[in-house]
Write the structure tokens for this entry.
Amino acid sequence: MKRGPAGRFETTATAGETVRAFVPAPLPPQPPLDLTGARQGLLERALLACGRLDGVSALLPDPDLFLYAYVRREAVLSSQIEGTQSSLSDLLLFELIDAPGAPFDDVVEVSNYVAALEHGMNRLREDFPLSNRLLREVHGKLLARGRGADKQPGEFRRSQNWIGGTRPGNAQFVPPPPPEVEPCMAALERFIHAEDDGLPALVRAATVHVQFETIHPFLDGNGRVGRLLIVLMLFDAGVLRQPLLYLSLYFKQHRAEYYRLLDTVRQDGDWEAWLDFFLEGVAATAQSAVDTAHRLLALFRDDAARVQGLGRAAANALRVFDALRARPLAMLPDLASRTGASYPTVARAVDALEQLGIVTEITGRKRERVFAYRQYLDILNEGTEPL
């Protein structure tokens, strides 16, 4: 439904140029969203897929194990959309030995994303409201170090920004002028907390994401915070008990369409086209996460059975295997610490796992060797190749 522009333009001056900045109208869209017909079926399919994802997480022997790896996979994907070249292995190496293979700033950005998500989730679990204050806290974690640390971490911007182009005059999109940021974000917070408009949680998350990206309230990190906001909203609304639904891979795979639809909402007020895209993404992403969980369960089960066939060496090898399920990159001292076994015992167990083809040494060095649970990493790495 084309409602016309979803806001108004204001003429403002920045960097010596006069530009037309867009100020979005408060949510919800008017006239109301059309959630009938095929769109209702799409919404039900997306909700059902979320329910399956919630259910499969309960089947995992250790849901935190899956969550640990999946959060880091999302951090890599969301940061890649912003141009980083870091891989999941780079991040895990950085967390292990502070020595990634990718550029340091890239991996710090991804590591910051993990910290930002974990901070937001912990605050919500403490019953802290999903609010502008929480978004500023999350942003502060995201830009705590590395690139962006000089871009007012944890504060709404006080200067004009723009999206695309080399300067304001040739920008693809210019968000609201600085004086409009606080009022726009206050209105968005009121909409997030509204309980009388009857909008389903997935629809609310979809519209809030567009509105947040349109306001672009920070000098840097808006895309990453906007994607985090989807996860936080669905967790806060009880759609998911674990933050396992991440749309970054879907947005990465459909980048041109994603940006086109954001512009379509702003220019034409066609929220329904965006909503169809978003709900398709939720359904596909949730189903993909379910499939990944089942594949990991099968991998763990089959590999554990092979380890149990080692005879007397099986008990210690299983302890090390369990540690590698929790952290798929590890060094021998780290494994000894986490399993409580002696260094020689761990070394023998790792040798046995190498013989089975479960573990691979990835440095080629004789000292400070790093071992990878390769098949586990391969499954998690699917789709995370740098752009």
